[in-house]
Design brief:
With 140 residues, this protein is mainly alpha-helical. It is 85% helix and 0% strand.
Length: 140
């Protein structure tokens, strides 16, 4: 009878040991899951903070772009206001600065054509035409 009692006590002890091992494993798994959840939450918080910073950056960049555009528009408006009060002939003279000779001659012919009704007769020498044609071929 003592042997059976010892065997029973041994089985009980083995079962208790198995139960404690399972409980320890379950606690370890629970701890691992808790750590994973904490890491996931920390990662999510980091992503949220990053997106908020990105939103601030986009908003600031948009505001800066708008301010730059407003400043450019103001500058262009001021220049256009000044130019609108300037004599067109003066503007045309300013625009011709830096033009190559062929462009200047073309501009002169255009002005002659615009005032054709005021011109009685216009003679253009063949030498001038030949030189203009030669220059235009060189610039092509």
């Amino acid at each position: 009878m003592a042997i059976k009692e010892n065997e029973l006590n041994t089985e009980i002890a083995v079962e208790n040991k198995k139960r404690r091992i399972r409980e320890t494993q379950m606690e370890a798994e629970k701890s691992v899951q808790q750590k994973r959840r904490e890491l996931s939450e920390a990662e999510m918080s980091t992503k949220i903070a990053l997106e908020e910073k990105n939103r601030e950056l986009v908003s600031l960049a948009s505001e800066n772009t708008k301010n730059e555009s407003d400043a450019k528009a103001y500058g262009i408006s001021a220049v256009m206001g000044a130019l609108s009060k300037t004599d067109p002939k003066t503007l045309q003279a300013l625009a011709s600065v830096g033009m190559n000779p062929g462009q200047l001659v073309a501009s002169a012919f255009k002005e002659l054509a615009e005032n054709a009704d005021k011109i009685g007769q216009l003679n253009i020498s063949p030498d001038l035409l030949r030189e203009l044609m030669a220059n235009s071929k060189e610039n092509i």
